[in-house]
Every structure is written in C-alpha cells, then in structure tokens.
Predict the structure.
Amino acid sequence: MTKKENSIYNMFLAVQLECDNSILVWQNQQVYSDAYDQFKANNANIEVALQNQQAATTGYSQDKTNRKLTMADLAMIVKGTLQAFATDKNDSALYENVNFSVTDIVNSRATLAEARCQKICDAASANLASMANYGLTQAMIDGLTTAIKKFDVLIAMPRDVRSTIATATQDIKKLVKANQEILKKKLDKLMGLFEETAPAFYSNYFNNRKIVDGKTNYTELRATILNKNTHLPIAGATITAVSGKGTLVITTDAAGVADEKKISPDTYDITIEVAGFVTQTCKQVKIGAGDLEKLNVEMVPVI
C-alpha cells in the first residue's frame, strides 16, 4: 500500500466509524444502506489484502534472514580453522583472504554476504588436504556450500511471493478505487437527506471525508537492538508494542532492526525479549501521526 492509499484508507475507516455510530439515522434509507454495506465490505477486503501482502513480505524476509544467519555461522566456524592454519604456516595472504567478521556478513547486502562466504568455502576446499589436524572436514565444507545455495535461492524474491504481493497490491488499488466511487457517487450525494434531520451526522461525515496528507498519515516504528557488551546487532529479538488499540509484534532482522510502517498513532508500552538477554520494557512511548519513532535498545546478556 502506497502512502497515498494509506491516507485514503484511513479516511475510509473514519467514515465507516461515523456511519456505524449513526446507524439509527440512516438504516431505513435502503439505497444508502445498500451502498454503505458495499463500502464496508470493501474496507474488510482491503484489510485482508493488506494482511496477505504483509504476511508474504514478512515471511520471505524472515526466511531470508534466517538463512543468512545460518550461512554466516557456518562460515565463521570454517574461517576459524583456516586462520589457525594460516597463522601456523605464516600465510598472511590466506589469513586476510578470509578475514571477515560475522557482522561483515550479516550486515552486508545479500550478494556481498554470499560472495564473502563463498570465498571462505573456496579457501577451505583448496586447503582441506593439509588441515586434518585443524578440525576442518569435508562435511563442514559441504554444510557451508549447502547453506550458501539455500541463501542464494532467496536473494531474488521467489515467484510465488512476488505473485502474492502483486495480487494483493492490485486488489488494494481496485478496492480503493471502488470505495472512492461509492463515496463520491452515492453516499456523498445522499447525505443531503440528513443535513436538517441529523446535522451532527452530516457535519461529522464530511469532516471525516477529508484525506490527511500522506506525509502526516504514515506512522512508523523502527527499533534497533544491540548487545550491550559487544555492540553487535541481535537478530530474532521480539518486540511487542501494546496500546489501547491492540498489540503489535515485530522481530529484528540480521542487522538487529525491526521496522513497522503501518503502526497506529497511539501511546505504547514496548517490550523487547530475546533468549539469553534481560527483557527490557519502554513505558508510555507516544507515537504521533506521521512520526518516525526510533527505538534504540542495548540488551544486557544474562549472566
């Protein structure tokens, strides 16, 4: 959903709330009632399309992150044996050729992360015969090779994920257009019936019909979670934001970042949890319409 569509959809929801609150005013107007029922059904279908779009994107991103972390972990084990071997052999070229930290891999773009792991894998294959005493095995190399291949598959978004997102995107566009037509050509036109008999409903309806500028209607929570001792990013941290409107749960990626661009403006209690670290809570975090709330938290390891 684009920022403009998000602004329009928020207007739809505001109109829906006002109409629901004033149902006694218009329920006996059959044409109005029929048009509103379709409008409300379209809003429900927009929400379904949004959920499908977000589920496909989130699932793909999380799978990609998990595979990247697995690849990085295996590469670090193999790298360690190579650098121990290189140290004993005074082979500074080999040592530097594989001298990547885990953050060099997990924080780099996908193609570069893959290339760095492949470089470690290639160096291991080239030196395997001489490294029996260093713990390097063919099985370790094969495991890293498999992890690289599995990650490579997800560098480009799979066709089924692209298809799901594209379908949801098109559904949203069609439904937004359909509801704009219902408002402009039916509900707006019939509101004159209530100007004198229900002036509060009439006034509130048109006040809620105003579309707030997308720049002030697109609200975002971005959390960055680090290890307090090492200052390295923490992947897989669960961030739970609770307000009077409901609960939002997001998870950090390989860079320790969790981002939610469709959070409702409200005041939240935010809890950060991850295995091996002390749980932290940020109370009464106020996020206004159009705000980008940046939450930077350093987690303390459990001793």
Notes: Residues 30-88 form the longest helix (59 residues). The radius of gyration is 27 Å. Residues 220-299 form a domain with the Immunoglobulin-like fold (CATH 2.60.40.1120). The chain is about 55% helix and 15% strand.
